[in-house]
Amino acid sequence: QVQLVESGGGSVQPGGSLRLSCVASGLTVSSYTMNWYRQASGKERELVAHIGSVTASTSYADSVKGRFTISRDNAKNTVNLQMNSLRPEDTAVYYCSARRLTTYWGQGTQVAVSS
After folding, report:
1. How many alpha carbons fall within 13 Å on the CB side of residue 63?
2. How far apart are CA 111 and CA 25, in angstroms?
3. What is the pLDDT of residues 20-54, one digit of tens each?
4. b/e map 9-22, b = 16+ CB within 10 Å
5. How confident is the model at residue 55 (pLDDT cuts 50, 70, 90)?
6. Which of 2, 4, 34 is nearest to 98 (CA)?
7. Which of 27, 36, 67, 90 pairs with 61 at a CA distance of 20 to 30 A?
């Protein structure tokens, strides 16, 4: 059974940092395209960052480029999202997903950025 469990969310002031983690079981993260999505209240879910399976190439939404970094720890079967210089507009529920033929989703972790 596949499980993706996110952690690391919380409340932070603008300019602060958070590190989200997604621990996978039942699949190997290096064999999947791993993604971080977010969904703000009243808005559609959007792709924030992803890391490819073979080359570990990364890409980011324009809104987070230069501030967020996605990484993969194969030994821990984990994908991380380092978020720096956080802004109020980064407030959302952040979801981890794993995509190959099927897409699996985690339950999400809340990030709130406010002063």
Report:
1. 11
2. 23
3. 999 999 999 999 999 999 999 999 999 999 999 98
4. beebeeeeebebbb
5. confident
6. 34
7. 27
